Each structure stands twice: as C-alpha cells, then as structure tokens.
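PT: before anyone asks, these are the final sequences, not the draft ones from last week. 647 residues across everything. Please model them as a single complex and drop the result in this thread when it's through.
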Amino acid sequence: MHFMKEVFEGLTIAFRAIRANVMRSVLTTLGIVIGITAVALMATAIEGVTRAFDKSASAFGSKVLYVQKFSWVGGDDWWKTRNRKEMKIDYANYITRQATLLDAVAPDVTTGKDARFESRIMLNAFVTGTTWQYQEASGTTIQDGRFFSQEESDGGRPVCCIGANVAETLFPAVDPIGQTIKVGGYPYKVLAVFEKQGGLFGQFTSDNRIYIPVNSFETQFGSHHDVTLNARVANNADLDDAREELRGIMRKIRGLHAGQEDDFNINQSDLLTNTFAQLTGVIFMVGLAITLLSLFVGGIGIMNIMFVSVTERTREIGIRKAIGAPRRTILFQFLVEAAMLCLIGGIIGLVLSYVLSLIINQIIPTAMPLGIVVISLFLSLFVGVVSGFLPAWKASKMDPIDALRYE
Amino acid sequence: MNNSVVINLQQIVKSYDMGGAEEVHALRGVSLQIHQNEYVAIMGPSGSGKSTLMNIIGCLDTPTSGLYEFEGINVSDMNDNELAKVRNKKIGFVFQTFNLLARSNALHNVELPLIYGGIASAERKKLATEALEHVGLGERKTHKPNELSGGQRQRVAVARALVNKPSILLADEPTGNLDSKTGDEIMGLFEELHSKGNTIILVTHEEAIAEHAHRIIRVRDGLVASDETVERRKLTTEMA
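LR: through. Structure below.
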C-alpha cells in the first residue's frame, strides 16, 4: 500500500542520519569500500585479460592445427616428449599431398636474430623460415605488399615479409616495401608488412617476426630448430575430423604401429583457451574468497555501527513508536540506513576500482563490464541488509516506554 | 455533559515481575471512565502508579489483568502493532520533555503521525501546516527544535498531538520543563482546545496545574484515592 512512502521516508531518515555523522559513516563503510573495490577490480582485471586473451588467441586461428613436438599445455611427461624425434620441414609437402580436409600446410622454424635497416636496429627479432603456403595456412593478414611466391620460396630467395612492430622499429618514416634489410647479417628484400595483431601474445604473433623462405633460413641459420607444421582446416571440414586425418597422416610419417603412442602433438587454440579459462577460474575463486572475507569483515563493521546508531537513537525510536510507528516501519528504517551505508561504500568502491583499473591498465589490460557494476551494487545492498538486520530488529523490538525514558 | 464514554477501565491491574518470586503491583485494580470532552487531571506522588496508569491509558502498555475499552473497543490484549495503530489514530501525546525529533523541522515533526497514518504528502503538508497555525506557529514551520523556545517546542508537540484529530490528548507534565509564564500559556492553549471539544487527560503532580482541569483523579498505592470534579471540591472546601 504505502510501501513507497515508507521507502522514501526511510531514505530521508537514513540520509539525514548519515549526513549527521559523515566521518563515522565514511570510516564504517571502509570495509565495504575495500571489499567492493577488491571484487570489482579483480573481475575487471579478469575480464580485461580474458578479452585480451580471446583477441590474442584468435590470432592463432581457430581453424589452424599446429603439429609440434611439444604440447602447449603440458600434461605429458616432459622427458618423454623431449626425446621425441624432431619434426621435419618435408612433412608439410607429404601432408599436403595426403590430406583431404586441410587447405594448406606450411612448416615454420624460428630463431632470434638482429635485424637492421641503415642505422636502425631491432635486436633479437624473431626470424621465421617458412614456405609460400604459410600465409594461407596460418591465416595471417597482409596489410601491404604480397607474401613470397612458390618460386621464391622453393628457390630460397632473399626476400622477407615483416610484422607490424618490425616495420615500425626499422622504418619509422620510410615505406618498407622494396627496401632491403639485414637479418643476421644477410640482406633480405621486404615484400610485405603484416597487419598488426597486438594482444597478450604480441611477442609470439606476426608483429615481431620476420618471415623468410625456409630454404634460405636453413642455409643461413642452420637446420637444428624446432619445426612447427601449420595446417589450415578446410572451410567446409569439421575440425575434429581434420585433426583425426592429420593425426593418421602424421602417424604414417612417423612409422608408428597400431599400439604405439603418438610421438607428436597436435595443438590448437582451443587448448590455450581452455587452459586459460581454468586458470582464470581458479584466480577468480581465490579472489572471490578473499573478497567475501573482506565483505564479511565490512559487514560486521556495519552491524557494529548500526547497533551504536540504534542505541544513540533510542529516544527517537521511542518517539516514533509512541506516535504510532509500527514495528515494521522501524525495522525498515534501520535496514534502509544500513543498506544505504553499504551502497555508498559500494559506489565509492566502484569509483575507486575504476580509477585503479585505469592505472593497472598500463600493465595488464582491464575492462569494467556493466555486469560487475550491477553485481557490486547488489552485493553491497545485500551486505547492508544482512548486517543491518539484527540492529534493526533490536530497534523494532524496543519498548516505547523504556525508549522514551532513555537518557 | 451527555457525552459518550471514551475510556473505560475496569479493575486494571499491572504488576511487574522483578525477578524471583517478588512482584511489584503498580496498579491494583483501577476502575474509571472518561467521557468525551472531559478535561481530567491525574495526580499522584511518584511511585503511586500514576505513570503506569498513563502508559496504559496511552496504549503504550497493556494491563496484566482487567478490561480496557477505548471507544468501546477492547484494547487490553492487543499486540504491539495494533496498539501502535490506536496510538497513531486515537491518541495525541504531549510530553514533559517535548520529545521532538531534533534533526527535523517543526513541519516534519508535526507530519510524523500522518506519515505513519499513511497520508499522502500534499495532504500531510496541508494538515501539518494547519495544525501549526492553530497553535500559533505558522511562521516557524521550517525551524528546528533547537531554534525554538521551550514554549514554542511544546506548541509544536501539541500540534503534532492534534494533527491526526485524536480522540484524546494525553499530556504528561506538559509544563514541567517550562517557566511559569510559558506554562500558563500552554495551559491556556489546553483550555482553548478543551472548549473546542477535545478530550484532555493531564498527568501532573502540581496542584496548580491540576486546577485547570474540571475533574481530578488522585492515585495512591496503585488505587484511585479520590475522583471528583473541581466544582465539587470547591464546594467541599467552602463548606469546611
């Protein structure tokens, strides 16, 4: 019936009471502020990192399978995988010929070399040797220029395609296409610049890489490097089917018998995503426990100060009861006050964590989703109502005669 | 006066359990009736049960045994919330220490019973303003209690007591915290309210204040010691 009136009256009283004790109220809400800041900040960080991760993981391409000696996520006995035979560049051609569900297969090998252009230098850039099919196999996008042709690839021509960061470092002012850079001391002509990928794994994406024909790579930098085979699953093919087919072909190449284990790993971006989700899940649970603890402590603080407030205002409660306030109204009044205190704490906490997230954003990416704002506010309301209940109950149970006599 | 009974107390007993077997009997069987538009003073020394009687009449407390009918309705065994409703609608309180909300201005203080009565805001403001004007404080609506004199505070309290148009006005030592001049002013206000048809119950220990009433009930040791109209008392004294 006149519920809204009571809400409004309750809010007015609460507001007056809080304003009458600003310092005390602020100090009391500190626990809530810290709790909400912790929860919001943590969620913000996780959300930000997850977003960045998803964006970065997409750089790997969800439809690309990576055949490697090691698994990305571990699990296998490292000593066992270490002793596996190396992957070979030739596998790529063989797989290409055999596979029906794969569009393109390209090997890549990587080493670190300094790259120079005139006086500019990029120390320890990732130099990757691969074949002409790489661009299709890995699904990377060229911003400017073209990838090397089959002839250039097979012939091991001194040509290269560079990542966005490499281009920025070596060519701050000049158009890189057609220029010749020195990689590990050998000259390579720049054919293309890749689109910037950015993200968490920027270091491992094309951004910091220089791609050269694998034949040239082996000539200049040797052949003792881990080979990755990038296999692009055909658009109309199922990922798992393609994976099984690839596995069969690899087993054939490796000459494995029916009972033998695979001596290679087929990695895919899902692996990373899943592992990452597990990891963030654990972090989230730990964070949640800490947060709940601080909210619990904050709640006790609120309860304490509400008891003080109820005692202080015993006479007021007596007056209100004498002139006809029902128990429910008194209960409600103090619940609203506790909830409002906590809500103020929650809002301060949110503002604080937003500011902090901007600072943290300099180190790891953050993003505050609306859901967190809503959840935080509800959480602080909830803490307020729960911790305000006992004091409010006490107030509502007061005997008006005793309360009026209270000095 | 041919008016109906507002308060009907029959054999009201109130005892307090003081722990153990000991019981204190504050009231030991009080019976009395108060009619509409009466002006009654309840007198008695401290410890006489005067305050307990007032609390019961004011529906702040319930009797241990006995019957209390308020306007024909049995209120002796109502629960807290039902009593709160009776207090809100039927009883206007005026206290010795004014008991205004310190943080609220005069208007809001007077509005309070209307809020608990569920009256809409605009109507509330109108009624509260009228009540304040009625006690001569129309100009002080926005003043807080600490910006008002004692007499003015008590007027605000009277306005608050009357704003719901209650059946009785219950005043507990209303002049106790006032100097005699302002006390007289308040008593004048009560006189005026009584002449306008209000039922007034005055609880006091001051003879001079009680003399304003038209009937004096004396309480002693938890019982009604005497109950007589002022006219009759004057008559008795003259005869003596």
